[in-house]
Structure formats: structure tokens, C-alpha cells
Amino acid sequence: MKTPHIGYALLACSALFGLSLSTAASAADVTKLVESCASCHGKGGASTELDVPIIGGYSAEYLSGSLKAYKDKERPCKDTKIDMCQVVKDFSDNDIKQVAEYFAEQKFVRTPQKFDAVLARKGKAIHDKGCEKCHSEGGSVASDDAGILAGQKMAYLDEQLKFFNEGKRPIPKKMKPKLEALGKGDIEALIHYYGSFK
Ligand code: HEC
Ligand code: HEC
pLDDT-derived band of residue 3, with 50, 70 and 90 as boundaries? Predict the structure, then answer.
């Protein structure tokens, strides 16, 4: 799948984020931390950028787990000026907890994306067979250990599935065989299925 717009949005929000970086590291003020996230992830985590994931409405457990993973460099970061690893590098456990709780209280707000209806139908069948057990209701339910797939940014999902497949992001043990069973076109179909949620 081609994702031609990656990079531009990040450049724009890196500039904004640069202003608040110094305060974010020292102040215990959650509002400031949360505002720094909003410069990329949108207000309340309702991202409208194609390459930045929506994070509002995720569970606090998953959010804090992901932020810790970025802090410990267990999740890969993009090679941009400001990436997630840098964002959280000076966060205390308490910063992570408070930020996670804030976004868990927000709504997961989707923005319609362009998708191919035929691929989306194929993707639904693949999802129902191998993914629905953990990512329930088409991946629209936030759980303690996973985020939301339904309506999440397609470019983001594509990138993360590549990270899993290349061994750059740890794959949950029971998800691994399901990913390995997929053919090449299957991933594209799955992404169009998740992108079809409005
Ligand atoms: C400079 C832009 C930028 C800033 C600032 C930023 N993020 Fe991110 N974030 C991203 C991008 C882009 C990704 C997608 C992963 C990637 O490409 O590295 C991401 C990924 C994430 C994820 C993983 C989502 C998932 O589905 O697993 C979480 C959680 C997250 N960010 C939370 C935050 C929080 C909380 C803050 C503020 C403390 C924040 N981000 C600040 C750009 C940013
Ligand atoms: C046994 C349960 C399980 C199954 C089956 C499973 N997953 Fe997952 N999946 C998870 C968990 C748990 C995570 C969160 C992993 C983490 O962050 O450490 C996850 C994460 C993901 C992510 C990253 C989302 C994000 O916000 O970054 C994608 C994409 C994904 N799964 C797609 C799939 C697809 C596609 C299938 C079916 C082919 C599938 N999963 C099957 C449990 C599962």
C-alpha cells in the first residue's frame, strides 16, 4: 500500500512540539503533557492526520504499556526529528499513568478514510477467522492489552504490521501464528477492512 503523505504532518507537529519539549520533561502538570500530545495526535487524541494514530478511547492499561514500551525502546520509533521514543524518554511512571488515564477518558473519534469495498469484504473474512477472537467486533473494542483497529489510520496499521513481521515490534505469542498464516494480499485486505469503519 502506498502512503505518500507520511512525513509532512510529522514535520509540522515536530515544530509545534519543540516548543513544549522542555516544559514537558520537568513539569508534573498533566495539562501541559497532554497538550504536547495533541500537537500530533489531535485534540483528545482524535487524530485527523493520515500517519498519526488516534489514541483517545484506548484503555489506560494499553496506553501506559505502549508508552513504557516506547520509553524502553521495545517498540520501534520512526526516524523523524521528534518521535515517540523521544516524547516519553524523560517521563516518570506517574507522568505515564496520568497521561494514559486522560486519553482513556476521551472518545475514539474516527475520520472517514478512502478504502476499497471489495478488499474490505475480503479483509472482514480474514479478520473473522484469525483476529476477531482477540480484536473483537472488528477490532472496535479497546481492551486492557490491545488498542482499536476499526477506523484506526490505515498507514499506521500498515506500518505496525510491517514492524511485527520484520521482528521490530514484539508480537503477542498467540497472534504470531495468525500473522504468519497470512498471504501477501491478506494484509492489504485487512487494512482496507479496518479503514472501512466510519
Ligand atoms: C511529534 C509527533 C508526536 C507527539 C508529540 C506524540 N506522538 Fe504519539 N505517536 C506519533 C506517531 C507518528 C505514532 C505512530 C508510531 C510511529 O510512527 O512512530 C505515535 C504513536 C503513539 C502511540 C501508539 C498507538 C498504538 O495504537 O499503539 C501512543 C499510545 C502514543 N503515540 C501516545 C502519545 C502520547 C500520550 C503523547 C504525549 C505525551 C504523544 N503520543 C505525543 C506522533 C507523536
Ligand atoms: C491472541 C490474541 C490476538 C490475536 C489472535 C491477534 N491479535 Fe493483534 N494484538 C493482540 C495484542 C495483545 C496486541 C497488542 C500488542 C502490544 O502492544 O504489545 C495486538 C496488536 C495488534 C496490532 C497493533 C495495533 C496498534 O494499535 O498498534 C495490529 C495491527 C494487530 N494486532 C492486528 C492483528 C491481526 C490483523 C490479527 C489477525 C490476523 C491479529 N492481530 C490477531 C492480540 C491478538
Answer: very low
Domain boundary among 104, 136, 157: 104
Are 123 and 189 found together in one domain?
A: yes
Distance of CA 97 from the midpoint of ligand 1 (Å): 15
**Burial class of residue 133 (count of CB atoms within 10 Å of its CB; 0-12, 13-18, 19+):** exposed
Q: Please say which residue of 71, 104, 137 terminates a domain.
A: 104
CA of 42 to the centre of ligand 1 (A): 11
Query: What pTM does this model have?
Result: 0.90
> Among 26-30, 150-154, 164-168, where is mean pLDDT lowest?
26-30
User: What is the tens place of the pLDDT at every residue in 121-148?
Assistant: 999 999 999 999 999 999 999 999 999 9
Cα separation, 186 vs 31, in Å, equals 41
**Closest residue CA from atom 33 of ligand 2:** 131
